[in-house]
Design goal:
alpha/beta; Rossmann fold; 8-stranded mixed beta sheet; 12 helices; 8 strands; globular; AB_hydrolase_1; AB_hydrolase_fold; Pimeloyl-ACP methyl ester carboxylesterase; AB_hydrolase_sf
Length: 258
């Protein structure tokens, strides 16, 4: 389905009836990443998936897509669908967008799941990596995406889940260059939102991968120790929906239903 938004189009899907679950994909992903989970979750829930700005079938609306701008686009879809409260699951960049949405409209949330994501802002080293990646993308986008995509998986997962890995990579390569750069620039600008997460009045869970090279799980464990934020740790890397598929499905459904 398509929503007209700021002279552009936002693509989203909605399946099933019941409690709303909003699924927000990560960088270089699209609603397609959720296909298997949607099939399972939609038997008892209303599952809404949204292509974020510059990804999937959603248009770019500029050359910098801040997490706040992406959250506003998500909110436009939810208001269009008359969704007043929901469980929100955000994978990686989708988690950053979910936190920006929580800052804008906290009453929307019945629960928030950060999946292979973090509340932290980029440090200077990470910002520099993003800047260099955007520069490299303009020279050889395909090579860059293949290199960066490989780092998202635990080494053995690329072999164990070869077909799913290749499928996800092909979807990543369909991301437009403008969408790639705009998201990188937007992620560089995001603030630390630990206090937003900590003070949000709903169920909260972080799903982490022990072999995730992008997220400092030990630091997160220490930071949330005295909060009401739960943490579930899986055995593999950043792509839990492929690497720890059955565990992910179980934990999200348990989170939504408890």
């Amino acid at each position: 389905m398509i929503l007209n938004y700021k002279n552009s189009s936002i693509h989203y899907t909605t399946e099933g009836e019941g409690n709303p679950i909003v699924l927000l994909h990560g960088f270089l992903e699209s609603v397609a990443m959720w296909q298997d989970l949607v099939t399972e979750f939609s038997t008892t829930n209303n599952v809404i998936c949204i292509d974020l700005l510059g990804h999937g079938e959603t248009d770019c609306i500029g050359y910098v897509h801040t997490m706040e701008a992406m959250a506003e686009a998500v909110l436009a879809v939810l208001e269009h669908l008359n969704i007043e409260n929901a469980h929100v699951v955000g994978h990686s960049m989708g988690g950053y967008v979910a936190l920006a949405l929580a800052e804008q409209k906290p009453e929307l949330f019945k629960g928030l799941c950060l999946m292979n994501s973090t509340y932290e802002a980029d440090d200077n080293a990470r910002k520099l990596i993003r800047t260099r990646a955007s520069e490299m993308a303009q020279q050889n986008f395909e090579v860059l995406v293949k290199m960066s995509f490989a780092n998202l998986f635990a080494p053995e997962s690329k072999v164990k889940h070869e077909a799913a890995y290749d499928k996800s990579l092909q979807l990543a390569l369909k991301t437009p260059l403008q969408g790639y750069i705009a998201a990188q620039e937007g992620m560089k600008l995001r603030p630390d939102r630990f206090n937003i997460l900590k003070n949000l009045k709903c169920k909260k869970i972080i799903i982490a991968g022990r072999k995730d090279s992008l997220i400092d799980t030990d630091q997160i464990i220490e930071k949330i120790r005295t909060t009401d934020i739960d943490l579930v740790e899986f055995s593999e890397g950043h792509m839990s929906y492929i690497e720890n598929k059955s565990e992910l499905s179980y934990n999200i459904l348990h989170f939504v239903e408890k």
